[in-house]
Amino acid sequence: MDRDVFLARVGRAAMTGLLPTSPEVSASLPELEPADLVGLFRDSLQKVDGVAHGPVSGHGAPVVVSGIASGHGCSTFMAWDDLPAPGVAAELTAEGLERVDHDIEESSRLQHQLGYVPLSLGVTGALAGLADSGSLVLSHGPGRPRMASLVPEVHVALLRVADLDRTLSMWAHNHPGAAAETANLVMVTGPSRTGDIEQQLNLGVHGPRHLHVVLVS
Amino acid sequence: MPEPVTFLGRATALVGTHEASAIEMGARTLLKKRDRAAAEFPVMEEMRDRARAIRLHALSNLDRLLGHFADRAEEAGVNVHFAADAEEASATVARILEETGSRLVVKSKSMVSEEIELNEHLEASEIEVVETDLGEFIVQLAGDTPSHIIAPVLHMMRQDVGRLFEEKLGVAYTEDPTELNQIAREHLREKFLQADAGISGVNIAVAETGSVILVTNEGNGRLTTTAPRVHIALMGMERIVSRWEDAAVVLEVLARSATGQRLSVYTNVVTGPRREGEPDGPEQVHVVVIDNGRSEVLAGGTAEILACIRCGACLNACPVFRSVGGHAYGTVYSGPVGSVVTPGLHGMEPWWELPYASTLCGACEEVCPVRIQIPSMLLQLRAQAAEGGRLPGWLEKGMSRYTQTAVSPKKWARAKRWASLLSAPISSKGWIRHLPGPGRGWTDSRDLPRPAKESFTDWWRSNRGS
Questions:
Q1: Which CATH number belongs to the domain containing residue B125 in this structure?
Q2: Pairing between β-strand B266-270 and β-strand A121-124 as defined by DSSP bridges
Q3: For residue A143, which residues of chain B lie inside 8 Å, CB to CB?
Q4: Interface touch A25/B281, C-beta < 8 Å
Q5: Which residues, other chains included, contact A62 with Cβ-Cβ below 8 Å and sequence gap of 6+?
Q6: What domain range includes position A137?
């Protein structure tokens, strides 16, 4: 249907319909001190079956990440190019993990993506962390593939302590342009889960089974 | 559109079944989780007020918001389509699939796709459509329909799923949910990575940015919108808010009300196809904005129902839904919200009975994250049905007998005496515990006080009369 015809019909309907009005309310949780945000984030992440590490310094992060990788027996990894701590990919390669290229050419999309089936580890940064829900905010773009937090069994995210906020609505209020700045913004709250069969919790349905967040001070 | 059925007929067949007890258990668990999440969120009530104001504002300005949304989305590289009805929506999807040469399609959970019966439409072509939400995948394998808007297989036990996988996927029988989950993961993973197109719904769209937001816990929504070359999002036209910040408020109450989570595992904001230099993501994004009866609802007395954010809390809270489950309603949208939405979208005539599928106890309105006044809308629809000459048989007969009796003082007095006499043998200590015949249902869950031995009129005559 033609857009103008469609919208004109909607406009007429909205004028005649009996819609109640509701006053604008502004309410949110109070802001927290940075130290309290770290503690709250750790607790919230644990509640959604994720694991928090640190805070560690940028130099300490590569060893923590490779420790997680060996703990899960990972052999291949995909990583974002610009991580908040230097040397993570180099450390993983030095430990014998094979790095999988993340740039998909359209002509070979299928072949390339099928190569992701055995991928065991994805390493990403995070634009922000949400302490109240234990969520990561991932902004995808050049050098920051979506697949890294989606296809592997294990997802490790490096999150700067300074990028913590309290709730999604508070963060969105502070970053009103965030949704349009990237083609894909994702909030990740714990590992992939389902309760579809008899409400029984199961992790790792289509996304990662394990989620680790390394806090970087 | 599904065939109209009588709610009473379906519901009666479901009461006391294996399916109904699975629903009862599942819905109670979900409701408990919702209540706990609401109680531990200090500003839950204020956030519900905010969400309500945001949604009502969006509905009042719906044409303007949809126009903004289309402009911004097109700037981001999205193809926006407008579909007046189910047929046009399905045809639009079929055309996009044909033009992009898509043979294998993965789908993440979408209620509106069920509403427009997209799968049936596409099955006619050579296209393979695979549902990827674990619950929807099971429903598709079983050739069944979902029984709850957010938990499609709430009506099935693990043994049902085990036998289904054994039969349809050729795997060894297991009833361990973890193993069943792993079987589905492996089966679907290859479909995702090879699919030509992905079809999703839209939980909420943002007018000022042209974004569509999809919420899932499993990650199928993200895979559907990341791996295939083409992403098609189906959007009921009312699913929109003005700003990104508004969407965030709605998302916080949505997750808590649906499953008791503070946020769903994956909240996926898509603003156009992959951009210059991006390593992955779809080449094309299409959004199909669907009316299919919504503008008639918006123009009428139940417009507020369009504020619904599809959390399913009213289903879980409803004593009628919990006793019979979603299949009793005979349509995609079940429970209290469905009893208002369905007659609105598909017409009062075939669905006039649904507004009676309620005790008007008000539990739905109490848990609704956007405080929709469902009970008063159900009453309004009942009145509309009665005016159109539609009343449930028991009510119609009862009311007409009552009218005949009550208009004649003589008949009325006689009726009272008979009631007193006839109730004597079936009462004990002033109460009737079991009514005979058609009244049996009424006393199944409550006792009736015995009519007084002497009517007030008789008493007046003998005590105060001249």
A1: 3.40.50.10420
A2: unpaired
A3: 279
A4: no
A5: A85, A86, A87, A88, A90, A91, A92
A6: 32-216
Residues B291, B420, single domain; the answer is: no
d(CA B430, CA B424): 9
pLDDT digits (tens, 9 = 90+) for B310-328: 999 999 999 999 999 898 9
Q: Pick the more confident residue, B203 or A34.
A: B203
Mean pLDDT over each residue of chain A, to the nearest integer: 93
- A25 in a structural domain: no
Best of A9, A15, A22, A49 to disrupt the B interface by mutation (most B CBs within 10 Å)? A22
CB-based contact B291 A194, cutoff 8 Å: no
Q: Which of B47, B65, B186, B269 to mutate to test the interface with A (most CBs of A within 10 A)?
A: B269
Instruction: Identify all chain A residues contacting B43, using CB atoms and an 8 Å cutoff.
Output: 27-29
Contact A103 B229 (CB under 8 A): no
pLDDT of residue B5: 58
Long-range contacts at B87-90 (CB < 8 A, ≥ 24 apart): B87/B116, B88/A1, B89/B116, B89/B118, B89/B234, B89/B288, B89/B290, B89/B292, B90/B116, B90/B117, B90/B118, B90/B121, B90/B122
**Structural domain of residue B52, as residue ranges?**
7-295
Of A12, A27, A134, the CB nearest to B43: A27
Per-residue tokens: B464: 């105060």
Residues of B in contact with A21 (CB under 8 A): 56, 60
pLDDT tens, A179-201? 999 999 999 999 999 888 887 88
What's the total number of domains in chain B?
2
For residue B192, list chain A residues with Cβ-Cβ distance below 8 A: 206
Specify if B384 maps to a domain.
no
CATH number for position A66: 3.40.50.10420
Q: Does B393 have pLDDT greater than 90?
A: no
Q: State the total domains in chain A.
A: 1
Q: Is residue A58 part of a domain?
A: yes
Out of B248, B266, B295, a domain closes at B295
Final residue belonging to a domain, choices B295, B324, B344: B295
Segment B364-381 shows an average pLDDT of: 96
